[in-house]
Design goal:
By secondary structure, this protein is mainly α. It has 2 domains: 52 residues; 75 residues, Photosystem II 12 kDa extrinsic protein (DNA polymerase, domain 1). The chain contains 6 helices and 2 strands; from the N terminus they run H-H-H-E-H-H-H-E. Strands 1-2 form a two-stranded parallel ribbon.
Amino acid sequence: MYNVFEILYQQNFNASIRRLYTVKKAAAVMLAVTAAFICITVGYVIGSNNVNHYAFPENTFTAPIAASTQQQELGEYDINTATPEQLQNLPNIGPVLAQRIIDYRNEHGPFASIEDICKVSGIGQKRFENLKDYITVGG
């Protein structure tokens, strides 16, 4: 026959075992889900042909290099006769700024010196420093 203390002890012990089993079961499920996530992620990265493709998509850096090479091959541009397309080959000159240069030239006449390009809105000293090796004013 069991006394009261033994019965209470047995009931508490059984409840503790059930709680411990439930915690272990939940931890095992969480561990399995985490392991599956890691396996899928690692498999995805290893399975790709080019891991750097995700950090650097194709042709990301080819345009600036090609533009730089093109500028070196083409040499200098006469800003008094250059077309908008030619002006866009210059460093930091896009279609809008190229059109401003053309408009300024049409309104004020030919540039007397390469420094006069600084009078065009959007071309300051810093941009001029990048352009001066690529531009001329004829002659």
